[in-house]
Description:
By secondary structure, the protein is mainly α.
Amino acid sequence: RCRLSARTLSPVTVFSNTTPLFAFSALRRLDVIQRIFGKLFVAESVVEECAVGGLINVPDLKSFPWIQIVPSPSAPDPRFFALDAGERDTLTVALERKANLVLIDERLGRNLAEYYGLAVVGTLGILLKAKQSGLIPAFVPEVRRLQDFGFWYQEKLVQRLAELAGENTLW
């Protein structure tokens, strides 16, 4: 698993899958991703998934100068057949471009990314770094807001990360 550190935050190639973008859009804090990582690379299929809409409105990703849209592969990578289009294309282009980090929450996608040598961090890891960097005042309330939107996280993981943030999950 990737731990975000000052070293991690040097110029790196970071790709994001859909879920972290939905999560930070739900919180109305896409700026947190930009402030932590700077430039972000996103596969075209992820942009399309985000544009579908629904309960959470993701702003037009093409309108952010810090997000670079990368064409999706012309053919699906058979190594990632079990993943949806956004996850599959994110991992494929991240490997092609020798990414340093992939933002992804889904377990199977994370496992495959790590298997093929990609470092990963999920929404909760980004929130923890945001708290540690002073970008958000508290970790647990933001996690609870995401849960109110329907995001699901293992409570043991939330508790462990809350402890690292110096917080208690009971409130």
